[in-house]
Design goal:
Blueprint (H helix, E strand, L loop, with lengths): L2 H9 L6 E2 L4 E2 L1 H15 L2 H6 L18 H11 L38 H10 L3 H7 L6 H14 L12 H15 L3 H14 L10 H11 L4 E5 L39 E5 L3 H9 L9 H4 L14 H9 L1 H4 L5 E7 L15 E7 L4 H4 L6 E6 L9 H4 L1 H12 L2 E5 L4 E5 L1 E7 L2 H8 L19 E3 L4 E3 L50 H10 L22 H13 L15 E2 L4 E2 L1
Length: 589
């Protein structure tokens, strides 16, 4: 038995925190957590400092030491960081795994080789264990298997003769790449680090010689991505049939910056990134950690009338009735898509809008569905400008791949059942706010036809001064037919009573849409024309009256201090409101 198998069996509880039958933290996880803490507290670090590193999925053994109760709380609420099978930050090393002991749960039953987490990473990435590959050696390895062998050799190859167990070329490369990402190091800096290590390590070492070599080795591990040139005005992407075009087919603007020399590499004005989804879905079945979980949606049993997962809902069941062939294979993937814009520069003042498009597989249990590692970035729409109605231009590669996954599927290997199968996928839902909903669906969410349910059955009207559509007094039709507000001709539109019933297609609760204030001089002029509420009209000197809902400076200061000091949320439920309060400027951002 390999040490990998023993370690997985002994510590599988680390990644089975939630009991699927109760949807609560399992007893096995609680017992294992207690075992981990007892082991960590017996090591010299805790005996000296009385504190521990926290290996939760958020802290990831951050250099800051924590008290035992904090570490325990984090691990109970969040779970362990990925691939922390060997507790190296808590006093355990690979040599401990070689010692025989029937009493120590941290050691294997026989003399085995140390577990290299980077070998495990490669095994998970390419979907087979060493035992399975030993059996496959009787045949000529296919391209994917050969790629795995190459990476496995790189993972096992010591950096130099006589180095510590587990220090391989791949592990060093992975750590160097992580340093570059964490500290935003330049390529020249990485080249200098690589050259320095070549000089200081023993002669004949296998450390990477440059950043190029680091990227080359890591790229062979990872998943492909595509850079696609984009028109300067978002008219089109230079993809497929238009891949060789040098000018936009619509606005005729140049695709590339002017070059200074003949033969110089052409640089596009704009580019988008596309990360194909099929390979990442196949990886979910190539990893022992996730292959079985991807069938959870079909294998779990929910109590009648309870909904613990989208698969228990009416939409999922209706889809199965309409497409029984797709439903007959429980390994087919059900996807949700979400997108929204954000400013990557935060409060630095830069006006920049970046739009990621993310897919999530809903086959997984509730505890895993929303974890970061299962939220797959597929498209990164470049800034700095808002894509507006051009989002569908950027979605073209994803739509084509989703159509292919629905119609044809891809060959995949399920390591949990050791079977090849045809993997198909369906996009079940899109999740977005109302403006992004309009961008995804193509339905306008502005103007008189903004409501996708009411369509043209609205009472919206045009404001001559404000030059915009107003939805004021469009909601009295939803009141009970005998409600007094329906006959009120003073506090709503002038001289208007409402007898209409609500649109038949619109059912459910009213939606409350928050937005930026439109309370300005123009809106007050329009209000005066349509409403008889003199307390809200402009004053004699042409100024707007102070609204009754506006806080006075003293009250605003009390409110902001309350937000900064007294409002608390549990970890993971909200960002820190205290960081959003500017007491000096009396602002909430």
């Amino acid at each position: 038995m390999s040490s990998n198998s023993d370690l997985y069996a002994t510590r599988r509880w680390m990644y089975e925190r939630i009991d699927p039958t109760t949807n609560k933290v399992s007893n096995t996880y609680c017992q294992g957590l207690e075992t981990f803490l007892n082991f960590a507290k017996s090591q010299p670090l805790f005996l000296e400092k009385q504190k521990l590193f926290c290996p939760c999925i958020k802290c990831e053994n951050d250099p800051k030491l924590q008290e035992e109760r904090i570490v325990s709380t984090h691990l109970y609420n969040k779970g362990f960081m990925l691939n922390y099978w060997v507790w190296t930050s808590h006093g355990e090393d690979y040599n401990m795994l070689n010692n025989d002991s029937e009493e120590d749960v941290f050691r294997t039953e026989s003399h085995t080789e140390p577990v290299d987490p980077y070998v495990t990473m490669v095994s998970d990435a390419f979907g087979n264990t060493e035992t399975e590959f030993d059996q496959m050696l009787e045949e000529e390895p296919n391209a994917e298997a050969k790629k795995f062998f190459d990476m496995l050799d790189a993972a096992k190859q010591p950096i130099y003769d006589g180095c510590k167990e587990g220090l391989s070329k791949l592990s060093l490369t992975a750590r160097l790449m992580s340093l570059k990402t964490d500290y935003n190091l330049s390529q020249k800096c990485m080249d200098s680090i690589a050259q320095m290590m070549q000089e200081y390590l023993p002669e004949g070492n296998h450390s990477p010689k440059s950043y190029y070599e680091i990227k080359k080795l890591m790229r062979s591990l990872g998943l492909p991505y595509q850079k696609i040139d984009v028109c300067q005005d978002n008219c089109m992407i230079f993809w497929r049939d238009a891949e060789k075009e040098e000018k936009c087919l619509f606005c005729k603007k140049d695709r590339f910056h002017p070059t200074q020399k003949i033969g110089q590499k052409k640089i596009a004005y704009r580019q988008m990134f596309y990360l194909p989804i099929a390979d990442r879905l196949k990886r979910l079945y190539q990893s022992l950690n996730t292959a079985k979980e991807m069938r959870w949606h079909a294998e779990h049993l929910a109590n009648d009338g309870e909904m613990c997962h989208p698969s228990d809902g009416e939409a999922w069941k209706h889809f199965h009735k309409v497409h029984p062939d797709f439903a007959s294979e429980p390994r087919n993937v059900y996807l949700g898509l979400c997108t929204d814009g954000f400013n990557p520069f935060g409060m630095s003042g830069h006006n920049y809008s970046l739009w990621p498009v993310i897919l999530t597989p809903y086959n997984l249990p509730p505890a895993l569905c929303m974890k970061q590692e299962f939220m797959f970035l597929t498209i990164l729409v470049p800034g700095p400008n808002h894509p507006k109605r051009s989002l569908d231009i950027f979605l073209q590669p994803l739509i084509e791949e989703l159509k292919d996954l629905w119609v044809h599927g891809v060959e995949a290997y399920d390591i949990s059942t050791k079977q090849n199968f045809l993997l198909k996928a369906v996009l079940m839902w899109t999740i977005s706010d109302f403006p992004a909903y309009g961008m995804l669906s193509g339905w306008t969410t502005h103007g008189r036809l903004a409501c996708p349910y009411c369509l043209d059955q609205t009472g919206a009207f045009w404001l001559k001064n404000g030059k915009k559509t107003s939805w004021f007094d469009c909601h009295r039709c939803f009141l009970p037919i005998d409600h007094s507000y329906r006959r009120n001709k003073t506090n709503f539109k002038k001289g208007k009573a409402v007898d209409d019933s609500p649109p038949e297609i619109l059912t459910g609760e009213e939606l409350y849409n928050e937005g930026k204030t439109k309370d300005n001089i123009k809106s007050r002029l329009d209000l005066q024309e349509h409403c008889n509420r003199k307390d809200l009209h402009l004053t004699a000197d042409g100024k707007a009256p102070i609204p009754i809902f506006r806080l006075q400076p003293e009250a605003k200061a009390v409110f902001l201090r309350w937000l900064q000091k007294d409002v608390k949320f549990s970890d993971g439920y909200s960002s820190s409101l205290s960081n959003c309060v500017d007491l000096a400027g009396a602002k909430l951002t």
